[in-house]
Amino acid sequence: xxxxxxxxxxxxxxxxxxxxxxxxxxxxxxxxxxxxxxxxxxxxxxxxxxxxxxxxxxxxxxxxxxxxxxxxxxxxxxxxxxxxxxxxxxxxxxxxxxxxxxxxxxxxxxxxxxxxxxxxxxxxxxxxxxxxxxxxxxxxxxxxxxxxxxxxxxxxxxxxxxxxxxxxxxxxxxxxxxxxxxxxxxxxxxxxxxxxxxxxxxxxxxxxx
Amino acid sequence: xxxxxxxxxxxxxxxxxxxxxxxxxxxxxxxxxxxxxxxxxxxxxxxxxxxxxxxxxxxxxxxxxxxxxxxxxxxxxxxxxxxxxxxxxxxxxxxxxxxxxxxxxxxxxxxxxxxxxxxxxxxxxxxxxxxxxxxxxxxxxxxxxxxxxxxxxxxxxxxxxxxxxxxxxxxxxxxxxxxxxxxxxxxxxxxxxxxxxxxxxxxxxxxxxxxxxxxxxxxxxxxxxxxxxxxxxxxxxxxxxxxxxxxxxxxxxxxxxxxxxxxxxxxxxxxxxxxx
Lengths: 209, 276
Known about the structure:
The structure holds two protein chains of two kinds. By secondary structure, chain A is an all-alpha fold. Chain A is built from eleven helices and no strands.
């Protein structure tokens, strides 16, 4: 027993020594960690901040409200940063826009369930305006305010696909990834969205007449 | 390709997203069908015009600043802020003083890693103290199992003899040590025989004695040089275990006799072997 106690005592100075080492280890490790995090942040900002306008534009069209758009984009950037370690792809823009899109839909579902569930009523929007010819629409096609009003009337899935194609110039493949739809669906959805946009424009132009 | 198909594929063609063969087919149709060609041209220019005129909402400068500062806040909330606190609690633990449990500190991986290292150090320090009882408990289980098995499987003895001069040479020939073998018939513990067994990761000698209707297994193997000399009694599952050592050997007596009988057995055995 005495021998055991002696052993135990003998090991105590060692214990202190290792404690000091551990403290040093932890401090150094945390400093390294701090540097690593700074480096990670820099690399994240290099890759993701150039797409801030695209992120904001998409959120703004989806939410149709500036304050909500800014909140969602900030939230999306934070989410993106937290999972940046898992991003190994080369298409940072599509990756970020996917997060912006998902964050936007979460807010849309929470605040404005109506926006997603109310089916687009073709009768109301198209009745009586067949007389407005494509040529007439083309005459008004530089009227940004008119286009904005017509776009805002469309369901979220149409606003989304029109923004991604017309303004960001993304490929069907990228759009399919961002909007979580099969690649084969992109063309038909885009065709329907364009058709509805033309109808909405026609309806507005017809009303003004 | 007919007009209906061409109309369906028009948007894909406009966006340049069709495969080359389908593209050629639609081109050919547009050359041949004036109506579709007109529709395509109108659609194309209208879509381009709308696309160009659609307001683009650029991010305001303050949004960029908001994002950058929120990212920096996110980093700042990570482990860094707990360095001082962690280090202090580590030192306090090392001194075995009053422990402070850092409350509210997030369980980040570094704190966890430090805790694991500490647990390992403390465990290593305590090991020499804990090891013996732990090892004894394990050995006791082995001893009882061995004792029970010896009574169960009609394998009490390898060499059945009450003559110590038969049992001892038999064991000596089988083992790399020569245990003392004594007959204690006159003391009320007749020798029944000897057996080989395997305990504590080595072959051991088992001497079997009888006490009235009960058997005593006495396991013997060489003692480690630094072994403790304190005799030990363990009672388990109704079995008595008695442990002692002399200058050369470890002894473990296992039986279902009562503690007093086993103690008496030990004394007789020690008294007889010291004469040899």
